[in-house]
Amino acid sequence: MRNCSSLKIDGPCKVYLEESELPKAWYNVRADMKKKPAPLLNPGTGKPMTAAELEGVFCSELVKQELDNDTAYIEIPEDIRTFYKMYRPSPLVRAYFLEQALGTPAHIYYKFEGNNTSGSHKLNSAIAQAYYAKQQGLKGVTTETGAGQWGTALSMASAFFGIDCQVYMVKCSYEQKPFRREVMRTYGASVTPSPSMNTNVGRKINEEFPGTTGSLGCAISEAVEAAVTQEGYRYVLGSVLNQVLLHQSVIGLEAQAAFKKIGVKPDMIIGCAGGGSNLGGLISPFMGEKLRGEADYDILAIEPASCPSLTRGKYAYDFCDTGKVCPLAKMYTLGSGFIPSANHAGGLRYHGMSSILSELYDQGLMRAASVEQTKVFEAARLFAQTEGILPAPESSHAIRATIDEALRCKETGEAKNILFGLTGTGYFDMVAYQKFNDGEMNDYIPTDEDLAKSLAQLPNVGC
Ligand SMILES: *Cc1c(COP(=O)(O)O)cnc(C)c1O
Q1: Burial class (CB in 10 A: 0-12, 13-18, 19+), 42
Q2: Which residues have any ligand 1 atom within 6 Å of their CB?
Q3: Which atom belonging to ligand 1 lies closest to the Cα atom of 276?
């Protein structure tokens, strides 16, 4: 049983910023990288994608942000800052109760992004992308969603600015999470299970892999096709791209300001990595300090053992989607044909990784590790029982790694400051929690042969 009287609370439990202290500009970490992330390539010509080519698919202002490797601070438009005030700042929380349960001398902090209806950090970029689509006078946007958090966030953002929103939802999630789907529909979005029979690429994938439950890569191909074949529509993506990491930097900027306020410096920063947007956003300003030689941080990306792009993938140019309709990105990848086992962290089932994070990882500026599903849910349960928040399975990957690090500190006696990103809540993941509670969860890890098969399909662009 918890012994509250022995709990020594020697600082604030939660650090909130005043509204006047909220970031007025996003921070673009590429500006401080000496070696920049590799550019997107046109799969037809093998040459870097030009702004004109990208504007067929993405909103113009977002294309500018995507290609901007040099501007360190990009102003957050007033309308977006106003919307942010609905649910930001997000709290920086000291996990006193978890520390006590672990008996660790480490100080654990988390930045909680689950305090909005989408239940995750994804709203930070969704609102920006919907804003720029509206500014450009578009009718609507198309997108994919895996677990449903991104689709929900974009539905909310599209409803706010009054534009149409068409979501291709990975089929296994569509079936497993009917309530997610209804949230999106309540915000006015149309939701189609992917692969569908609505698009050429969907029909082709269904033919090639009958009965497939889909993947993020398939859904992206369908959403891109839907955007380019409808007048007044553009495609938006919830992770991976440079622009998304830029918008998510609001997480790191707030965290950095909150730490300054209490005079604490994190030693280690941990985040789960699917396409890399929350981790990229959380670490950006800290990585900036590191790149400029002002401070050092130990930064750790955590991925599922079932979809280990950083830890077991290859750093190479690859397609961002299964249907091979998107530009090529240089990234740590498992191959665009890799379809991970149906593990329960839907948001971490992407075959690739942000080009920015891939480059930082390749330069040795951050580390990566993978964890198995059952261990992740054990950590989730302990966190829910001690800190009160029911975490998303994705976020729980970071919790697992944080607990392991805090237990290491217990052995060494190190009073390290650990910051991790608590990206969201898990209320729509109760099927996963049920499997865990019933002892029916399994930990499928792809074999080297599985990976070799999809990696053999990497496009040949000689870098
Ligand atoms: C989507 C999602 C992630 C993973 O996506 P990233 O782009 O890697 O951040 C992590 N946590 C939650 C709650 C998510 O919804």
Answers
A1: middle
A2: 120, 122, 149, 239, 272-278, 347-348, 392, 394-395, 423-424
A3: 8
Tens digits of residue pLDDT in 321-342: 877 878 999 999 999 888 887 7
Structural contact between residues 363 and 355, judged by C-beta atoms closer than 8 angstroms = no
User: What does pLDDT average to over the chain?
Assistant: 94
Amino acid at 345: A
Ligand 1 centroid to Cα of residue 46, in Å, is 30
Provide the token pair at 439.
Answer: 């002892």
Maximum CA extent, the chain: 67
What confidence tens digit (pLDDT) does each residue in 59-88 have? 999 999 999 999 999 999 999 999 999 999
Handedness of CA 203, 205, 210, 213 (dihedral sign): negative
Q: Count Cβ atoms below 10 Å from residue 230 Cβ, excluding itself.
A: 14
Take atom 3 of ligand 1 and give the residue whose Cα is closest.
Answer: 347
H helices present in 5-146, as ranges: 51-54, 60-67, 78-87, 96-102, 123-135
